[in-house]
Structure formats: C-alpha cells, structure tokens
Amino acid sequence: MTGALTLSDRDAEAVVRLIEAAQQVQRRSHFFVWMQAYLQPLLPHQIAICGAYHRRRKDVVYEAFDSVAVAREALALLTDGQSAVLRPLVEDWVAQRGRASIASVARLAGAAPAERALLLASGIDEILVHGVARPARPADIECLFLLTTPGAAVEPRLAPLIELLMPHLQATYLRVQAVEREIGESAAVPAAPRARAEVLTGREREILSQVRDGKSNQEIGDALAISALTVKNHIQKILRKLGAANRAQAVARAMALNLMAAGDETPVPPRARR
C-alpha cells in the first residue's frame, strides 16, 4: 500500500511546522490544537482513533477525537479493542508487519456483518491505519492510530506520509498520556460545558479559525481586509469571552465548545471520547 514519498515545498514546510509545534504539546487540549492546526493539513481526517498501551490494564486503550456527528455506537466499535471491527483492523495491520495501510470496512475479513453495517451506515469505510509495535514483535502494539473521514476515500499518498510522521505522532501522544498521568487527572477529557455558538460573533469565530492556523494579526487582517489593530482588538475580546490567558488556550477552549467558524474546511473536535 505504501510507495515512494515525494513532498511538495508546501508539505515539507508543513512537516517542519508540525515537528516544531509538537514540542509544546503537553495536555489533551494542546493535542486537539496540534492535530487540527498541524496534522490535519498533512493527513486530512474527521475522526482520529488514538491508542496506546496501558501498563496497568495490560492492553491498548483507545480514544476517539471526532469532529462530525457520528453514532456513539459506531465510535464505540472503533475504541473497543475487542470489538468485531477494531480487532480485525488491528490484526490486518499486524499481518502487514506494521506497515501503514488503508483498510476498507466493507472488505474487512473477520468483521461481524452487523458491526460492519453500522460503520458503513455512518459513512465510515476507508481507514488509514498505522502505529508502532515492539521490534520483532508486531503483535505487541505500543501505539496505533486510525484516521478516517466519513464518506471519503483515503488518498494512497497518505500511507507513506503517515509513516514519515509516525515518530512525531507517537511521541506527542505518549507525552500527553505521561503528563496527565503525572498530574493525577483522569485519562478521559472532562465534558465541555454547554455553550451557545452566539458566545462568539461570526467575525470572532472567523478570526479564531485563522489564529488556530498559526496566522499573525497582520496575515489575518490581510485575509479579512481589516487592520492588524482591529484583529488585535477582536482577539482581546475573544480571550475575555472564553476566559483564556492566551491565543492557544482560546483556540483549545473554542474547539472544546465547538465554537469555531461554521463551514470551516478544517474539522473541529468538540472533545475526546473513550
């Protein structure tokens, strides 16, 4: 499934930005922002299933980061390591000796018909699968990631690209796990407080989406045909409304509350779910 990887100048620059930004990721809120601002342009997806080996449970524990309305039952199948869908997906990846693969739920051998039908009804078919296993022991998984967009095929070029990015994706996700264990917090993300989209105006959500993409005040102003000072004033209002101390925290909180600009091309995950 994998092939030669050729990066455009734009993709090469995006890889560098992803690697640099990964060093600052410590918490799940940071991970949300990092995936959306830096991973998303390289590996497009609306659902990310992230799994890591849990020593206490002696098993890989999975969680879902999703940005679209998907049936809870469908996500449950992709986060339960023993489900009649996730297990065959994992087994298929292991059988390929840990190479990145694009799996099709419709053609997945060993998947139970009812569970397969549930995922397909949710638009979930092609899934990009890759992870890290112990050397010479491909069945002993340390991390595994599944990326998919309901109703969309996975481009073949993404398989070699995720292999290139895997060391950084793994290190970033494991760092988040370690930090949150150290501070004694629950591994699950607390449910976001209820909020209406009107908390932010349309213009503020537009600007915050640009902030998430790493643009400066001047770049945002140029894109929206307003001055950099006006952008700065909008950002100050956004910080006050969201109770955020800085731009990154504002983006994380807005993403958790699903308050980003409507119709934005980059999906925004409301929260992570196990």
Q: For this structure, what is the CATH homologous superfamily of the largest domain?
A: GAF domain
Spatial order of the strands in the main sheet? 3-4-5-1-2-6
Structural class designation: alpha+beta
**Do you know the CATH topology of the largest domain?**
Beta-Lactamase
**Rounded radius of gyration (Å):** 19 Å
β-strand amount: 15-25%
Biggest pleated sheet: 6 strands, antiparallel
Structural shape:
globular
Number of strands: 6
Tally of contiguous helical segments: 10
Mean pLDDT: 84
CATH architecture of the largest domain: 2-Layer Sandwich
The arrangement of helices and strands along the chain is HHEEHHEHEEHHHHHE
Count of distinct structural domains: 2
The share of residues in helices is 40-55%
CA-CA gap between termini: 29 Å
* Low-confidence residue ranges: 185-198, 262-273
CATH top level assignment of the largest domain: Alpha Beta
Top keywords for this entry?
alpha+beta; Arc Repressor Mutant, subunit A; Beta-Lactamase; 2 domains; 274 residues
Describe the structure.
By secondary structure, the chain is of the alpha+beta class. The protein has two domains: 10-182, GAF domain (Beta-Lactamase), CATH 3.30.450; 197-257, Orthogonal Bundle (Arc Repressor Mutant, subunit A), CATH 1.10.10. It is 45% helix and 16% strand. The protein is built from ten helices and six strands; from the N terminus they run ααββααβαββαααααβ. A six-stranded antiparallel sheet has the order 3-4-5-1-2-6, with helices on both faces.
